[in-house]
Specification:
Layout lengths: L2 E7 L4 H13 L5 E4 L7 H7 L3 H5 L2 E3 L2 H4 L5 E5 L10 E3 L3 H8 L5 E6 L8 H5 L3 E4 L11 H13 L10 H21 L7 H11 L3 H20 L1
Parallel strand pairs: 1-2, 1-6, 2-3, 4-6, 4-7, 5-7
Helix pairs in contact: 1-2, 1-7, 8-10
Length: 230
């Protein structure tokens, strides 16, 4: 089974944290991480949590998003607006399809939510392997933080874990090996880390399914042979 974490970055309103905790528990999840939050144990948070105080009390606190996702295999950011023209944005209702395709290659994933007023910064979005949003009929009024968490929690609750591939460790190692191969090849042919094209390639690597991973492994092996022979 994939471990799923909900991460709130700098939530400023205790009530929103409490309502988010309630949404998480209602949909069967328990792992909440908070980055520089308002007082998540304030009475206002507890009132809105309504039976989900254990989620608040067990929440892990971090000083930065980078620290909060260090141990996460797949980081999925949420945003209300497009920040990069060359980045793919997946609607929330397609998320489970992506997860099913990658279920054999990861052990953990995190859904990251930004600040109530400004969302995630570009730097924070760059830490995310995949970016997703909730398509809306109108641009205003927008969803608040707790509503967004509920939509994603509900969506993820629809996953049938019995259908997910169970031999994760073997495939996870293959996926990590592929990332290492791709990074080495990109460096060898002159694509520098943190450039737009480098990040774009690594972004697309992250959404590969098991069959495609095996295919790209073969391509990388052939490329390495040619590089060694040159």
């Amino acid at each position: 089974m994939i471990d799923i974490y909900f991460i709130l970055v700098e939530p400023a309103v205790p009530e929103n944290i409490g309502a988010a905790a309630r949404a998480i528990k209602t949909m069967g999840f328990s792992s909440l991480r908070l980055v520089n939050p308002a007082n998540h144990l304030a009475d206002e948070a507890r009132w809105l949590a309504h039976g989900s105080n254990d989620i608040l009390e067990n929440a892990q606190i971090f000083n930065s998003l980078k620290d909060a996702v260090k141990d996460i295999d797949w980081i999925i950011g949420t945003t209300a607006k497009k920040r990069k023209v060359n980045q793919d944005y997946y609607p929330a209702d397609k998320l489970n399809e992506l997860i099913r395709a990658k279920s054999s290659t990861i052990k953990s994933l995190a859904i990251v939510f930004g600040r109530e007023e400004s969302g995630l910064t570009n730097e924070e979005l760059s830490l995310c392997h995949t970016v997703t949003n909730v398509p809306m009929k109108t641009s205003y009024p927008s969803l608040n933080l707790a509503q967004s968490v509920m939509i994603y929690a509900y969506t993820l609750s629809m996953l049938d874990y019995n259908l997910l591939v169970v031999d994760v460790e073997k495939n996870e190692n293959e996926f990590k090996a592929l990332k290492n191969k791709v990074e080495a090849i990109l460096s060898e042919i002159g694509f520098k880390e943190n450039t737009a094209i480098y990040n774009r390639i690594m972004e697309r690597i992250m959404v590969l399914g098991e069959t495609d991973i095996h295919l790209i492994h073969s391509i990388c092996n052939k490329l390495n042979e040619n590089i060694m022979n040159d």
